[in-house]
Amino acid sequence: MKITGRNIKRRLYGLRNISTNIKRARYFRGHGVHSPFVYAIVRQVFMRSTLSDDSAIDLYDALITRGVAKRRAIQLQNLMIHCNYSSFAIDCSSNQMGGVDFVIATTAIEPSILLDMAAKASENKQTLCIMSPSYDSARDKTCRKIVAEHKCTSVDNRGYLLVFNNHLPKQKFRL
Q1: How far apart are CA 67 and CA 84, in angstroms?
Q2: Is-above-0.90 flag for pTM?
Q3: Under 8 Å CB-to-CB from 78, ≥6 apart: which residues?
Q4: CB contact set of 93 (below 8 Å; sequence gap of 6+)
Q5: What is the pLDDT averaged over residues 65-75?
Q6: How many other CB atoms sit within 10 Å of the CB of residue 108?
Q7: Are strands 160-163 and 127-131 parallel, antiparallel or unpaired?
Q8: Tens digit of each residue's pLDDT (9 = 90 or more) over 110-152
């Protein structure tokens, strides 16, 4: 008996009418990511549920004490290890951002301050992580503006927005 019907391409074509979160669900394992740097982050950071190095848990402990979910804290600790960052700062003002590699802005930071933090991180070649980028409409608009004006790679995985300031070309990834 011959199996007939629509192929997978035609079946997925109907997804254009549903929300973007459901559309992006098929890319959660890194398929469709054409950057080796971002693909490695997806495979080695986002898809890991345990700490990659149990001896380096400074960031993990700091995030847990600030009320960040355990899964997100593990991912950010693994990202710090994966990218060879040696120092971090959480919820610091743009004046206090000097001398660190990785800056994290939790939901305690107002959206108006995020633009200054992004500009300072770009100037200092730091990676900026904005937790809950679509927490409310003001934060969502600010994060979209940061991504649009940013000169390098940005990765939004719905839990946090990573704004890299390195040698990579301008790319936007929304996983």
Answers
A1: 25
A2: no
A3: 44, 45, 48, 51, 52
A4: 113
A5: 93
A6: 11
A7: antiparallel
A8: 999 999 999 999 999 999 999 999 999 999 999 999 999 989 9
Closest CA to 136 of 120, 114, 162: 114
Whole-angstrom Cα distance, residue 24 to residue 42? 14
* Cβ-based burial of 142 (10 A; exposed 0-12, middle 13-18, buried ≥19): buried
121: tokens are 């991180």
34, 38, 39, 127, 162 from 31: Cα distances, Å: 8, 11, 8, 24, 19
What DSSP designation does 16 have?
G
Residue 35 has what pLDDT?
83
Question: Which stretches does DSSP call E strand in 84-159?
Answer: 88-90, 102-105, 127-131, 153-156
For 79, the token pair is 């990202």
